[in-house]
Amino acid sequence: MADRPMNAASLSRRQIWRAGTALTAGFAIWPVRAAFADDAVSIVIFNDNGERQGTVELRKVVKTDGEWKAKLPSLSYDVTRRAGTEAPFSGDLLKEHRKGIFRCICCDTALFGSSAKYESHTGWPSFWKPIAKENVRTHADRTLGMDRTEISCALCGAHLGHVFHDGPPPTGLRYCMNSAALRFIPTA
Q1: In the prediction, which pLDDT does 92 show?
Q2: CATH number reported for the structural domain that contains residue 112 in this entry
Q3: pLDDT recorded at residue 35
Q4: Parent domain of 155
């Protein structure tokens, strides 16, 4: 019998069933969990009083550039989505000293507690630790001829600022954040 090209009309029901079964089996063993894990992150949830609610696994927040532009004020967009920096001593949260939590302006993830905020005299809100290490990510930043460590939101990837090793005890760290990347929620 000569080989002839196969098309839907020349396939028997059995051949179609086998092909469908093979495809189904292939999808069943597809690393779906691994694919989800690439898009997922564990975040510690805090209520607006700063009380830890537990850890959850969430899909990373992904939006188009246009969606971010529509959602954010222009300075917040430039800082969080384009890794910009607000001018020193210009941020609304620099002198914020009330009790509360600082959340990501893009996705509302809790990032810093007021108990870790201190006056660094650098021109940007500074903290000696994040509210939960799971909620922030660090990345090497070698732009502008400097060797720095960038801090971003773990859930949406928003650029927040940088961390330096000249902070106060007990960590010796200074998380130097942009006010335009944060939203402050005072506790009741």
Answers
A1: 96
A2: 2.170.150.20
A3: 43
A4: 33-186
Quick check: 178 and 124 in contact, CB under 8 A?
yes
- How far apart CA 172 and CA 188 sit, in angstroms, is 30
Distance CA 105, CA 124 (A): 16
Longest C-alpha distance within the chain, in Å? Answer: 86
Positions annotated as catalytic residues are 176
Query: b/e per residue, 66-103, with b = 16+ CB within 10 A?
Result: eebeeebeebbbbbbbebebbeeeebebbebeeebbbb
The span from the CA of 75 to the CA of 101, in Å, is: 21
Whether 40 is in a domain gets the answer: yes
Q: Per the structure, how many domains does the chain have?
A: 1
Which stretch of DSSP H or E encloses residue 137? strand 136-141
167-178 confidence digits (pLDDT tens): 999 999 999 999
pLDDT digits (tens, 9 = 90+) for 25-45: 444 434 434 444 568 999 999
CA distance 50 to 45: 9
pLDDT of the residue at 13:
52
Domain-located, residue 76: yes
In a domain, 16, yes or no: no
- Cα dihedral sign for 146, 148, 153, 155? positive
Q: What is the pLDDT of residues 103-117, one digit of tens each?
A: 999 999 999 999 999
Q: Is the pTM of this model over 0.85?
A: no
